[in-house]
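To the team - flavin-adenine dinucleotide complex, inputs and output below.
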Amino acid sequence: MPDFETVIVGAGVVGLAIARALAAQGQQVLVLERHSRIGSETSSRNSEVIHAGLYYPPGSLRAQLCVEGKEMLYRFCAENGVSHRRCGKLLVATTEAEIAGLEAIAANAARNGIADLKRLDAGEVRELEPELRCAAAYLSPSTGIIDSHGLMQALDGHIANDGGEIVLNTAVTGIETDQEHFRITTQSGDEIAALTCRNLVLAGGLGATALGRMLAYGPGYEVPPTYPARGHYFACNRRVPFQRLVYPMPVGAWLGVHLTLDVSGRARFGPDIEWRDDVDYAFDCDDGRRLARFEGEIRRYWPGLPQGALHPDSVGVRPKIYREGEPAADFGIHGPGQHGVPRLVALYGMESPGLTSCLAIGAYVSRLLDFSD
Ligand SMILES: Cc1cc2nc3c(=O)[nH]c(=O)nc-3n(C[C@H](O)[C@H](O)[C@H](O)COP(=O)(O)OP(=O)(O)OC[C@H]3O[C@@H](n4cnc5c(N)ncnc54)[C@H](O)[C@@H]3O)c2cc1C
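Output:
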């Protein structure tokens, strides 16, 4: 008998949502996390937006799990007292030249099953948000914001209530399989230990590639490499005159310097994008040039941004599985159909909209494990 039925590596929002789904089905679940707190990497360094699913290619996992996950998340928040607000977002074309791109996104959203977008001309936008300048916009009423820490605490509570366990300060350093069971080596401080399990889920975020490479696979399968892409946020030290989130037109797969609000009303702008070889959470002011770039981007839609209102806030790192300039990759949720290892699910490239999609990802992974013998 293995020590545990299912081990999940990584206590970010994705690992926790998967653990919650499996524990709710009656599985004996153990979550292993290398840090001293849950959700201390990407899950606590993001925009906290519940995305509607406008941008992702129709039929992709990102589109499917975002659209499905958004409604699951709103329901979960309401039932579990997690702070959130369906505040809506304005996607704006700041010039006439951007309107064709705006319409293309609206058409894509319709193909993803989003039927609530509302087209607004410049005057209608000014009625809603008097300080916002644009040539045209779409209002997305189902976009919202969420307290991501509150969400992870609620998931933690569900896992515990269903008999699951989360062990912190424990890094997974080795994985072997004899096709029946997995043998996992862990390190907690100086202490090395081992445990066995029947099912294994790797939800390691930026560490997913290193985890996946601990196992051997047959010919034809390669663990996706991770390419970190850093994003900086500036916070605004004044109350912004907007009720809704504001997104400019995306540039490739980057959503542009957007305005997000958190559930307490605090405004942040970002994230920008910087492809790197390492994971570095230090805020790099770039000798003042970063602030100047942000102010320029923001004044395209908010000309009234006061001088000196922005100050450095936080940094997040996207776990991308494609290089700069390549087409954006879908979520890489790999079951035995891809890698050939029974009862293993490994998740790669879980960037945005991973927070929005987490509950749908939990359901998806539990279906993959059901059919993975
Ligand atoms: C800048 C930015 C903005 C974003 N904005 C949004 C947004 O507004 N809306 C949205 O829906 N999504 C957004 N996302 C995406 C969202 O934040 C992620 O998809 C989600 O947080 C990923 O969760 P995760 O659990 O996969 O990863 P993580 O939160 O990184 O968790 C992975 C965990 O695995 C642990 N781990 C790794 N290796 C090991 C090991 N060997 N042993 C033990 N533990 C290990 C790590 O310590 C970590 O805690 C954004 C992402 C970024 C970077």
